Amino acid sequence: MSLSRTLSVFLGCTALMACAPAAKQTATAPAVAKAPAQTAAFTPGEMVMRRLSGEQYQNIVADVFGPSIELGGRFEPDLRVGGLLAVGAGTVSITAVGMEQFDAMARNIATQVVSDKNRALMIPCKPADVKAADDACVGIFMTRVGELLYRRPLTEAELKSYIGVAHLAADATKDFYAGLSTSLAAMLSSPKFLFRQELVTANTDGTYSLDAYSKASQLSFFLWNSIPDLPLLAAARKGELGTRAGVAKQVDRMMASPRLEHGVRAFFTDNFGFDEFNGLTKDAVLFPKFSAQAANDAQEQTLRTIVDLLLKNRGDYRDIFTTKKTFLTQELGAIYQVPVVDESPNGAPDAWLPFEFAKDDPRGGILTQMSFTSLHSPPGRGSPTLRGKALREVLLCQKVPAPPAAVKFDIVQDTNNPVYKTARDRLNAHASNPVCAGCHKIIDPLGLALENFDGAGAFRTTEQGVKIDTSGALDGVKFTGAAELGKAVHDNPATTACLVNRLTSYAVGREVKDTAWLEALKTSFAATGYRLPDLMHAIATSDAFFTVAAPKTQTASAQ
Amino acid sequence: MTKLISRRNVLRSTTLGGAAALPLPFLDCFLDNSGKALAATGAALPHCFGTWWQGLGLTPGRWIPDKAGKDYENKAELKMFDRYKHRINIISGTKYFLDGRPLETHTTGWQIASQGGIPTGVNSGPSLDSTIADTIGKNTRFRSLEISLDGSRASYSKRAGSASNPSEPSPLGLYTRIFGPGFKDPNAADFTPDPAVVLRRSVLSYVTDERKSMMSQLGATDKARLDQYFSGLRQIEQQLDIELQKPAPLAACTVPGKVDETKTGREVGEVVASNKLMSKLVAQALACGQTRVFNVVIGANGLRQPGSQQNWHMLTHEEPVDDRLGFQKETTWFIEWANQQFVDFIGQLDAMKEGDGSVLDRVVMLWQTDHGYARTHTMDALPILTVGNAGGRLRTGLHVPANGDPATRVGLTIQQAMGVSLKNWGLLSNETSKTVTEILA
Prior knowledge:
The structure holds 2 protein chains of 2 kinds. Chain A is mostly helical. Chain A has a domain at about 1-30 and about 50-195. Chain A has helices spanning about 5-15, 20-25, 55-65, 85-90, 95-115, 120, 135-150, 155-175, 175-190, 190-195, 210-225, 230-235, 245-255, 260-270, 290-310, 330-335, 370-375, 385-395, 425-430, 435-450, 480-490, 495-510, 515-525, 530-540; strands at about 1-5, 50, 125, 195, 200, 210, 325-330, 355, 460-465, 465, 470-475, 475-480, 545-550. In chain A, the strands form 6 sheets. A 3-stranded antiparallel beta sheet of chain A has the order 5-6-13. In chain A, β5 and β6 (about 210) form a beta hairpin. Chain A is globular and about 85 Å long. Chain A starts with a strand and ends in an 11-residue tail after the last strand. Mean pLDDT of chain A is about 85; it is low at about 1-35 and about 555-559. Helix content of chain B is about 30%, strand content about 10%. Chain B is built from 11 helices and 11 strands. Chain B has helices spanning about 5-15, 110-115, 130-135, 170-180, 195-210, 210-215, 220-245, 270-285, 310-320, 330-350, 410-415; strands spanning about 50-55, 90-95, 145-150, 160, 165, 295-300, 355, 355-360, 365-370, 380-385, 400. In chain B, β7 (about 355) and β8 (about 355-360) form a beta hairpin. At the A-B interface, α5, α8, α9 and α10 of A face α1, β5, α5, α7 and α9 of B.
């Protein structure tokens, strides 16, 4: 075995960890104000084991082995709990079908890593004989990769086993690289990689603290949606995460990284339910401009709007509901019916161009973007009820009860009804039923304010020749249309409370019920002018973020 | 994980010296001349089980036959089953009981139909198809196959509350899974174990060794979830064990050509196209001994006609009852269309000849739905169909009125007929020990 000169490349760049220059790191995220949200009394939630999400798996493979590695498989559907897939990740397992895919992806990835093309870059040593086992070289590789994939150093026994697997497979195949590939595939199929298990140490008050490496993972998956980098693992190894100052130092460093954008995008993608776009269809006859490309662009538009406002400009979170600034492609311009002049050469991918709606334009804020209006509409039309329900549940964290059984819906949206020409007419008629009225009163006005946007998100002012009335009220605050609805949501106290709740639950992977911690975070969020980076910083440096209660020894009553 | 992988395990696999100790696929010998039984033992070809999950119920007055027993006449919404009437049972009048729990429309019904009750946690019980698969499917390459015809991965098949077996939505994906790499043609003259499979098997053995070290640090709920992971892993190990043995010849097994990539989705034309391809692949999988259990979801929600503002589900609630006809015209179109898809599906099983019969002869399929009458979300007067007699395990050709009994009676009956050792099934008011004796052979 001889050490290759590529060792530093592997550790420094394909494992991404240490190679991003500091100057670039500060480009997208100005320094955050410190807003401590420690609270003396908090009630820790139960520790939880989370399945890696598909995006996390992808991020990890790209982080460790580089973005050119193809996965060659797909993931089991996720489960949304408490409004978040990140919380559902703590309740799902892996089925045989899912395991088939993880197994196939593991082999596929491992084969690419040891391929002729990649081995010089990714494997930091060369075997003495490519036709025979080389335990020392395998040991170097698996130690490094193992620490990244397991998010902690391998135990001696684990390393010995992986070396043993590679040795036996190399003997059987007379091929060192086939042996290494077999061992790497085993690691990628391991539950210790596929699940994030929280390892803890007991505190004197009966609670438990995450151990240093679990703390590192807690931070990196929250802020970056991926594994800890080498400096973070080093901080864990040196015991630096055992103090608040040590944690804060790492949080500051991580928040200055361009990767923070990955974490922010991952949270909003989850919170806004953008996974639902995978199953979203629109009728090709009724909405000919709605294409797969437009659906992708719709999500990207919202994420770009948010990243630009909240990260790059450190704006007020509430302004995402009112901002006139956004980014558009020509594809989106056609749907929004605004000119988007793209001077890219023919055949180039759609360029993203900044765009600002006029002050008096009803369009503005994420509620009027396609990612909201088209996602919460059935394939053939818009739906004030679905949109209003989504606004309440996703953005204000208010649960709308399911419709009661045995209700007549006949009139709700018979769009050809000669008497009830607009959605408002039809819903009013339906909501005259007292059983329905309670819920429709709180959801319909919000959705009706967005009736200027059809089922695909295109702007309109009339329905069946009748001018659309977009007036209504949100919790007593009156509005005349989408723009004022955005302002009402902006000013509603539930809006910021909801974000605190969701972001905290997202960070810890369980529904946070600890009101003391949440209240402290809400106060600090308000004090910093509702700056998202400051809220993330406050969560990531809270003691509660790293403290858990013992799990129950009995399962919930079986079936 | 503390144990080094056993050299013996790898060597045993690489030399195939251990193959004889592994469980064999269901056919270890030739079929007899009729193609209906194993020549060596005279045992019948193994029975199989399938589900057809079709939401949104049927229309009151348009399906329950006037007469009980044998000589009933199908009404409009079941008329398309006439051709298979002698091989079908209609069970009418069963109920899903809520026991005070809230009705989650289009969810609760599925839970009771598949799991026998409303689940209470991640460790809740498996769906009946998983229980049956654990009984009859352990020695096939796939313990069960789940497919959807609407392009989604929706599935009502569960190992447990936290482990839902996702559906395969793509005909090409299904083809690749069954007949792609890993498939061994039972009628091929030669058999050479794939050394790569041997290595894979070894890798998975290693992963299994990690169980103990993780379990000690988990709470009960997470232990159950980890157990489900290892249960999935064991199924993959069994698949590989089977791939390492020479399969016995199966006269009826014809290996299909690769299917084309197709557009899947919720428009009716797309569903029809998927059904045509996937029903055939399922029939071929059964004939080739690849599985004994399969689950079909026709459409979780939103099946629709192109150009229409409303989908089937919306129509059930929003379409007025036609004064002249006395029912919802467009909704019933969907019901009859979906039932025709089921007829086409079983037609493919029947078209797959085995000896002088067909694959359908050794299958029983269970047709269930989420609501009796979707327009008002009723949980009673449920329609349930069984198709096929699973090699003589059921009597067929009957209409059995159940008079308000729990729907779980049918699930219990089918599980018992499939050989599951089960005296009663279901939760609270949905629990029953009463089988539908009329249909048990």
